């Protein structure tokens, strides 16, 4: 895959060219039976969101030239393409994290591939630690906004020469998380009878892979963060840059420590286990959101949402 050099030729991150993104998009499109409209990224332990997809075709990341491969437990490393609630979808069972060693431009490459494939909506999920002391394990936080701590230092997936075919040089991030989709998700939560479980808040992206110190959690709380994780923001920056409509939610898999008297010890096995224990609720929320998008577009969704309640 041809990578363009940065302006000085000394940057550790390289820009992935439009042509390289298109080659991957064309490769995937040549192998699948539908043209996806919705892209889904499954967070840690949330890969089973794809189980409601019918007529599914699977493509392992390792079989897509130029695509990264997943290295994290709970991230299977494949695309699942098929129909969900009347719409063609492409779901990623596994995402790429900065701490795996990939530059952010590579972590978010699949989002650009989705755009070039013709996808219009990006649905992102993640597992996150609850900084907001009112949040409980198992709650679902609709992401209204993010704080991209990794980006504060200039580490951005948009760093390097800009190709206007992928988006503008200086994209705004206001409403990066589509407000109408958040409003709709709140109605869906009511329909599902889980309004108390569903919150709206701010996600913070840290580089990881270590979990946060208590002092860091206290600082994040002061900064207005509700949930913390090691993903999502770079994907959403790229999605907003290239004009995808984004809906995202965090599953709160553990409580973050804000108090030396009440220490919490996060671990990934627990994160994945909580994901699995909440998979049917997360899947139903996702399915109902897609069903409502299908209805809005005039595509016929199935009579029931096809999800386990
Ligand atoms: O954000 P996702 O991929 O859901 O995973 C979250 O879970 C892992 C830590 O347990 C980290 O990768 C964190 O970002």
Automatic annotation (TrEMBL):
Pathway info: Purine metabolism; purine nucleoside salvage
Q: Name one GO biological process term.
A: nucleoside metabolic process
Residues bound to a purine D-ribonucleoside: 212, 254
Catalytic activity from the UniProt record: inosine + phosphate = alpha-D-ribose 1-phosphate + hypoxanthine; 2'-deoxyguanosine + phosphate = 2-deoxy-alpha-D-ribose 1-phosphate + guanine; guanosine + phosphate = alpha-D-ribose 1-phosphate + guanine; 2'-deoxyinosine + phosphate = 2-deoxy-alpha-D-ribose 1-phosphate + hypoxanthine
Name the Enzyme Commission number(s) assigned to this protein: 2.4.2.1
Residues that coordinate or bind phosphate: 44, 75, 95-97, 127, 231
Q: List, alphabetically, the SUPFAM superfamilies matched.
A: Purine and uridine phosphorylases
Please report which protein family the annotation says this sequence is part of: Belongs to the PNP/MTAP phosphorylase family.
* Biological role: The purine nucleoside phosphorylases catalyze the phosphorolytic breakdown of the N-glycosidic bond in the beta-(deoxy)ribonucleoside molecules, with the formation of the corresponding free purine bases and pentose-1-phosphate.
What this protein is called in its record is Purine nucleoside phosphorylase
**Organism placement in taxonomy:** Eukaryota, Metazoa, Ecdysozoa, Arthropoda, Hexapoda
């Amino acid at each position: 895959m041809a990578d363009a050099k940065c302006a000085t030729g000394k940057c550790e991150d390289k820009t992935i060219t439009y042509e390289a993104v298109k080659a991957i998009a064309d490769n995937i499109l040549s192998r699948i039976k539908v043209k996806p409209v919705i892209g889904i990224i499954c967070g840690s332990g949330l890969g089973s969101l794809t189980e409601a997809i019918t007529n599914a075709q699977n493509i392992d990341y390792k079989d897509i030239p130029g695509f990264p491969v997943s290295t994290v437990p709970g991230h299977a490393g494949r695309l699942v393409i098929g129909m969900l609630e009347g719409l063609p979808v492409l779901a990623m069972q596994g995402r790429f994290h900065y701490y795996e060693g990939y530059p952010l431009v590579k972590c978010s490459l699949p989002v650009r591939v989705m755009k070039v494939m013709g996808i219009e909506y990006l649905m992102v999920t993640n597992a996150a630690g609850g900084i907001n002391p009112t949040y409980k394990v198992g709650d679902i936080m609709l992401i209204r906004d993010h704080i991209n701590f990794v980006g504060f230092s200039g580490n951005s997936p948009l760093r390097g020469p800009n190709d206007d075919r992928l988006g503008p040089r200086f994209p705004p991030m206001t409403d990066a998380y589509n407000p109408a989709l958040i409003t709709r998700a709140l109605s869906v939560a009511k329909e599902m009878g889980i309004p108390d479980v569903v919150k709206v808040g701010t996600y913070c992206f840290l580089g990881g892979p270590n979990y946060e110190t208590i002092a860091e959690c206290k600082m994040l709380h002061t900064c207005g963060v509700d949930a913390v994780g090691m993903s999502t923001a770079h994907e959403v920056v790229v999605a907003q840059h290239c004009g995808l409509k984004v809906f995202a939610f965090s599953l709160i898999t553990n409580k973050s420590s804000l108090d030396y008297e009440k220490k919490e010890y996060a671990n990934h096995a627990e994160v994945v286990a909580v994901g699995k224990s909440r998979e049917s609720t997360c899947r139903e929320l996702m399915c109902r959101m897609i069903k409502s998008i299908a209805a809005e577009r005039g595509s016929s969704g199935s009579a029931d949402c096809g999800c386990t309640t």
